[in-house]
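User: two proteins, same treatment. go.

Assistant:
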Amino acid sequence: MKFESIKNLFESKKRSEQVAYTGIMVEEETTEKDLVGSQHIRMDAVEAHSIISDTINISSIQQKLKSDLFKIGDPFIVRETIEALARLVLELRERILQYDTILSDDASGRLPSLLILKIIKKLKGGNMPQIYFLAGGRYTELERREQIRIFLKKNKDKFGKTLLVTEYIRTGESIGNLIALLEKANIIFDTASVTTEMGIHYVHAVGDLIYGKQLTNPSILYKPLGLGVKKDIQKVKKDRDLAHPQRNKLSTIHERAVREDLEVLAEEFVKLLK
């Protein structure tokens, strides 16, 4: 089946058709179907592999990446991470331009969230989604969860259609904390993860998940180097905003290098949607 251009899918949100009815021509307006919050049907594995391999060169992309995040470590795991990111982008193809807001789950969701934002910018230009980084984690303090709840309640009218992004799901318990808060706030959203544990049986809280690849371990994306944020599981302090990850005191040189690599990935992955 021919892969439909994502740009053609969204450039014309409304079209007019001439419909004959009892001898009178009437104009019927049709609109793009809202998919956010609806069931996601995962692409056939063979078809997905064919599209990715015919459109981009994973080995070539891997050679272009220069930051330590992608250079240090097992090249095979780096390749798997790139493949997982590419598959996630492909799975989001029909709804990626429908999101008004991106919510990043903790520090681990920061890089894939920024990557998705860059891809949307290349496809859409102006009127970009807003992006927030929310603290998650299995051991999140009650006070922090309460701050996130208040933050969501206060801003939910601004969110519109939302994409909740994380990097890795093992049991679903951690991301489930945020999902429960989003559901309680009546926010329309999808959940996306770069990778999931192989053979996982998703808990109810995860619901319908859009993911890139199943792996036995997390990808390389959750490393302190280049993230710019860190998990803060220390004692809660009253004067800190714990609804968002805390700043990571790392050299901005490494952070800039990672962001440049994200730009390379976005430039390549956007080809999957054209």
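Protein 2:
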Amino acid sequence: MPSSLSSVRGLVLSRARSGTTYTTSGEDLISSAGDEQKTAAILVAVDMVMDRCEQTARTTSRNLLCWLRSVRPHGCYAKPFTFVSKAASRTKYIRLLKRFIAMVFHAFCLPTDVCRRRAGIRFKRSQIKAIAAIWNDCIWDQRGPTTLNFWKSARAHAIAKYQASWNERAENSEDISESDESANGDEDHRCDSDEEEEEEDREEAKTAANLSKENPDLAEMLERLFGLVMAFSTEEVVDGRPASTLLVYFSGILGFTTDSTGFLPARSYTSNLAALIYTQRLLFLEYALPARAYLSLGITQRPRTGQVARLQDVRQKYTVLGSQSPFEELFSLLAYGKAIASSETPPFLLRWSDDGQSVSHGDLLTISMGSFRQLPQALLGEASRLCAELMYDWQPPLDLTSIKDDLTNTTHGFSFVTHPRNGLVDAYLKLSLKACTSLSNPLSRKGSWDRKAVFAYWKKEEALREVLAGLLMMTGGGQPRGPDLLHILLRNCGTAERGLYVYNGFVIYLTRSHKAKRSTNREFVVARFLPIQVGHIVYKYLVYIRPFVDMLAREQYPYIRECSWYMFRYRFEPDSSPYCTNYHW
């Protein structure tokens, strides 16, 4: 992959070795800085191609996405193809496609004999023609396209255009649905619907035409790049050997370790195959049913009827079991890799001592059970200290058995703190009075807030949240997944339910695992009861400390009207995201 350094100095593809039979000059194989800049720009264009594929997938019906996900020739999968849930996964998946494209252009720039003998790559004439059309495109004669900023700004502009187009269509569809309710007669309704759909198609074509008119060279370049990717995705298998296709050849390269001295274990390699299959499905959907036509490639826009038949024509050739294609080989390798991974040696092994009182991870780490048991106690002591400082050593009466809560109430903004029978909505004002009148570290001086003291108070509250995360992780029983714990809400928010409750005198928290929902269509809900001491600290935090901190935020930042309801939040603003699992504790 090109980097900022290689775009300036060039990239050494291979070092000359004495006695080699591959080259006669004995010189290093170097990709020039200019070639690296051009390759880097092409890789940003790959992002634009995939953006367009994703836009098409978003406007595709569920039924078609079920067919897209299926690998059976005549059977539809029960669940549709879906996007990966995390942005990091999307970046990783598309990065593999970009690595493939980078390999293609690096190989194209090599001397023919070196490309065949040392790289083992033999391009077909049609592939060479497609690669050369992009590499020698007239767009590179312009000054802007040789810089990454040009392509990044072009991509941002294209995304903004598409989003504006779809938002306008969504608004129009809402207006249409309202007018349909007042329409009289089924026949009139059908006629109106046809006219409205035709108008949508015209608007879509108009948007595409505008994008092409703004920079026709760029639009044609992107179409050619898509055609190149599909040329390798639909490459014919020679002599029944899938490895004869460049995409399968590339998947084999991904099986090497970073230092190229060994092979990746199956559990690490299968993620690469899954990434290639994911991008291939998006590409084949765009190839079969594009939302906008590819004029230079002769691919027409998806028809309004007969879409399943058109998708089936492509599926039967390339994406079902039994079809001799790169996709079919990748899918078969993935299934085989998963079977092998289940019988492989685990990535790490823990070894217990003979007396069962210590556990070791190789020679790197040894933990005794005594020190392990002390960890929750140490966290509890630290949480108690921070809570006492934040409460200014005030000990309000606390009886969890008298606290009322309604686990079935999903009203927006509800929690046991807002339950009318508890009378806790304004309880934090007593803490505010304590903080302003305390002789030690008061938050108010001469009738105004002491910003330095307020910021110090916020830092202590953040430290308490970090310690509480550890206590909730370890003391509730059945350790939850990090993302499930860190997404806990303090109150019901829209369609998302809170995670902290009071039940029979105990503070409990619920985690709703969404990972299993993607495969089972069900949430996995677990209730964990906190120990009495931990529950008391959490109660004080929810009733007194957190509302007081939110009030301070509104006082210091007038533009904030309501704070985020995530327990483990990065910022005060309501759009703040919760902590990530890589948060630096």
